[in-house]
């Protein structure tokens, strides 16, 4: 039996940012990789289950205030790595996330042109 995957709506960019994630009864820490406007991959210090809701706090170097995402859904889990979909955040946080992704995209495309 084959698995059908839906195409991604957003481009993903490689990152290495610290993240704190909060569930109903736990607080974890990890690193974000492969981030987009719609979600990201986290390598965490705890094992989580697909489907549970979390809040995450993204710590970006050289930015004094973390980006808070109020609600994410865990879409898949492999060991302590998991993928999340961003479901809800305040408009100001969405703007900050968009600016961060735009900066990642600019650096990515500039590097690919330089090659």
Key structural traits:
115 residues; Thrombin, subunit H; six-stranded antiparallel beta barrel
Kindly report the name of the CATH homologous superfamily.
Answer: predicted glycosyltransferase like domains
Q: Please give the CATH class.
A: Mainly Beta
Mean model confidence by pLDDT: 87
Element-level helix/strand string: EEEEEEH
The tally of helices reads: 1
> Strand percentage, roughly?
35-45%
Tell me the number of strands.
Answer: 6
Q: C-alpha Rg, in Å?
A: 14 Å
Helix and strand content put the structural class at: alpha+beta
Based on the coordinates given, report the CATH architecture: Beta Barrel
Count of domain modules: 1
- Low-pLDDT parts are 1-7
The biggest sheet, with number of strands, parallel, antiparallel or mixed sense and barrel status, is: 6 strands, antiparallel, barrel
Approximately how much helix is present in the residues?
10-25%
Give the strand line-up of the largest sheet: 1-2-3-6-5-4
Distance linking N and C termini: 40 Å
Return the CATH topology. Thrombin, subunit H
Shape: globular
């Amino acid at each position: 039996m084959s698995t059908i995957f839906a195409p991604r709506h957003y481009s993903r960019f490689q990152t290495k940012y610290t993240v704190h994630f909060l569930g109903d009864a736990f607080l974890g820490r990890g690193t974000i990789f492969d981030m987009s406007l719609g979600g990201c991959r986290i390598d965490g210090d705890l094992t989580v289950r697909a489907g549970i809701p979390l809040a995450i706090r993204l710590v970006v170097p050289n930015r004094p205030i973390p980006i808070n995402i109020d609600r994410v859904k865990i879409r898949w889990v492999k060991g302590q790595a998991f993928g999340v979909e961003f479901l809800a955040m305040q408009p100001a946080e969405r703007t900050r996330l968009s600016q961060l992704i735009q900066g990642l995209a600019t650096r990515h495309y500039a590097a690919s042109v330089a090659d």
